[in-house]
């Protein structure tokens, strides 16, 4: 059992609402298509609107250089989210004994994002590391820490999930990925022994290597996926995880909150419909900030946490490239 003492999140400053993508950028798919397929109204980017209009991001390497020049990178986003989490926990950076992070879209191969964020926050040396399974990385982080012997872990661990997918999006008129992706980060202060706002019981983490390339991002290339296959796989696996966790914990739909990967709103509605789950108890933020990768699920929980009450139960289930999926159970303290 793990404890989450606090959570944080960060989004870049540039907003890309549907009106910008449709009216200014001239993407061919209209609002009816977006409403019926995605249900996403807005997203945030480390790129400026002017840059997207001028280049349509034909060259992701130039997008990385542009974002760096404007001071917004995966490291700066993760550092902002981490600072929020530390401030909410009332901890100083020097109390953190480990940084554990994923970054799907690194701007630099060396140094690692873990040590770069530690430097940015003033966290001293430790076994800082990257552990990445794309959009399922929050589940992977909880699983890895849950599998470790508690006595080998430091008192306080900063786990982070971050991506800047808009630097890998093709903004040409026929592309629909621009409607899906946003950039952002999430952070959690985790402890194996100090009580916190949430208890976490990681229960599932699995992969399907034979489908590894159904989702891919080349080092400085654009995002690509087998959309139909990934959509069907995601819905099916998420439903299976909810059912598996509910059975193991003896839970009923009307008693718990659910949260899934923030891929798109329409997919989430499909999952709720399949399992007859109450929509008002499904935690989500994808409509207003798009799919921000592994940061989506934990940022949704973080943004809702203050409204939850002691004893509230949460079942989480996420899926990402790999293909990889994971989930577990949380309870609010």
Describe this structure in words.
With 333 residues, this protein is an alpha/beta fold. It has two domains: 190 residues, Thiolase/Chalcone synthase (Peroxisomal Thiolase, Chain A, domain 1), CATH 3.40.47; 135 residues, Thiolase/Chalcone synthase (Peroxisomal Thiolase, Chain A, domain 1, 3-Layer(aba) Sandwich), CATH 3.40.47. The protein is built from twelve helices and 14 strands. The chain has a ten-stranded mixed sheet. Strand 11, helix 10 and strand 12 form a beta-alpha-beta unit. Helix 5 packs across helix 6. The longest helix has 23 residues. The relative contact order is 0.19. The mean pLDDT is 96.
Keywords:
23% strand, Peroxisomal Thiolase, Chain A, domain 1, 333 residues, 12 helices, globular, alpha/beta, 2 domains, two-stranded antiparallel ribbon, ten-stranded mixed sheet
Which second-level CATH architecture of the largest domain applies?
3-Layer(aba) Sandwich
Strand content: 15-25%
Structural domains: how many: 2
pLDDT averaged residue by residue: 96
CATH homologous superfamily assignment of the largest domain: Thiolase/Chalcone synthase
What is the structural class?
alpha/beta
CATH topology value of the largest domain = Peroxisomal Thiolase, Chain A, domain 1
* Cα-based radius of gyration, to the nearest Å: 19 Å
Q: What's the CATH class of the largest domain, please?
A: Alpha Beta
Beta strands, count: 14
Enumerate the strands of the largest sheet in spatial order, edge to edge or round the barrel.
5-4-6-7-1-8-14-13-11-12
Q: Which residue ranges are poorly predicted, with pLDDT under 50 across at least 5 consecutive positions? A: none
Oligomeric state? single chain
Outline type: globular
**How widely separated are the two ends?**
13 Å
